Amino acid sequence: MVNPSRQQRLLALRRRYRLSEDAVAKLAAFLNSLVTDPFAPTAVRDANRALDDHLADSLVALELEEVRRARTIADLGSGAGVPGLPLAIALPAEVALVESNARKCAFIKRALATSDIVNATVICERAESFTDGLERFDLVTARALAPLPVVAEYAAPLLSVGGALLVWRGRRNPEEEADGAEAASQLGLEAHSPILVSPYEGAQHRHLQLMLKVRSTPPGFPRRPGLARKRPLGRTGS
Question: How confident is the model at residue 208, as a pLDDT?
């Protein structure tokens, strides 16, 4: 049984994002996996904190039209399944959860089963190796994955023209934003200004970085695994 105060907070998310009753039940089941599964890849074990830091922080993306209209989503470096699983619960979209770590993949698969999420699939490989996903997605998401130029290089080849990359960020970093914008321009993406968001009461320095795919990514991307981090694009990359 869900703690009554926690149930009220879940219902507040339902009202804020106009979620179905079924979606709230699945969010509660996923939350339970995050805090009770001993192999959940998260240091946040308090249910209230996990609700804020994982569920609410993921669902705040629903404030963007580019997210609400997406029907194919790739969540890169999915880790504990966020933001991909909450978005799969909230949206009528097919979600690919791309994660290279086998133990994290195993947790996500258990969470899919216990939360009865049928519109998500685990892709247990590196983003650069996910060639079946090239130019397939309306939306690519990434949270706590890598610097912006690296994330942009991972994501751009997977997006169809007209699609969007959305990156969860904390405090703004003008130098990294400039590098990200330069990398984006080389990859067929157009970087927008970071969007300040408030996923839950008391949240500070939370931003969503949006990049739109405005033209095809040039040949040669993705580069071989590891090269995006070793030789990042952008002003300070080589």
Answer: 98
Going by C-alpha positions, the residue among 108, 83, 98 that lies closest to residue 17 is 83
Rounded CA separation 127/133 (Å): 9
Q: How far apart are CA 39 and CA 46, in angstroms?
A: 15
DSSP string, 101-138: -HHHHHHHHHHHHHTT--SEEEE-S-GGG-GGGTT-EE
Q: Which pLDDT value is given to residue 178?
A: 96
> Across the chain, how many H-helices and E-strands are there?
10, 8
Could you tell me the pTM of the whole model? 0.95
Per 3-state DSSP, the chain is made up of helix, strand and coil in percentages (nearest 5) of 45, 20, 35
Sign of the CA dihedral running 201, 69, 194, 237: positive
Helices (H), the chain: 4-17, 21-36, 47-50, 57-59, 65-68, 84-90, 102-114, 148-155, 174-187, 227-230
> Please, what are the averages of pLDDT over each run of 10 residues along the chain (238 residues)?
79 97 96 96 92 97 98 97 98 98 98 97 97 97 95 98 98 95 97 96 95 97 94 72
